[in-house]
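Lab notebook, bench 4. The sequencing result for the construct came back, and we need a structural model before the next group meeting so we can plan mutations. Quick request posted to the team channel:

Model the 3D structure of this chain.
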Amino acid sequence: MTQSAREASRLATWRALREATVRLVTERGFAAVTVDDVAAATGTSRRTFFDSFPTEAAALFDPDPELAGRLQRLTGEAPVTDDPWADLRWICVSFVRWGPPDTIVVHRLGAASGELLGYPVQVHRHVETALEVWALRRFPDDPLGARLLSAAAGAALGTAFLTWDPATPAEEFVRLADRAPAAVTVRRPGTEET
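Done. Here's the predicted structure in token form:
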């Protein structure tokens, strides 16, 4: 089996395990689903499950492995204007529009379970990291300003996520993800306050 075939097989297994976890937890609740249940539903083993996910919660919330590549492409495709905040907003909204289709279900599961409530926000720190890499590339002479810019965008996205009512359509999250950074005023890195 070639490397690309192995990777495709691994990704297919990862997605099957995630889909089964989301389905079973939706049907039964998080506390009533075991790793053995998920393995049985996918025709795999506990070992296969733990090769893909470190915990049951990770099977719900860990980002799709293709997400990092999507983020990297978006940061590469982002407009380069005189307004880096607008450019960063473009990345954020484009990313949210692309989001995995089961985001609504997973958000509801997290909101319904006290033990899972903080997990989605913690796991999705990778988004802020990708934004930081973009900002540092854009403003290599002002790492403080670049990191503040990316942290502000990450905070805006996180706030939109926590504000979004999962009973509403996913388009409402996209609207909030655009509205949140629009409400923030930031100075361009590399400029001094007057």
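The radius of gyration is 19 Å.
Will bring this to the meeting.
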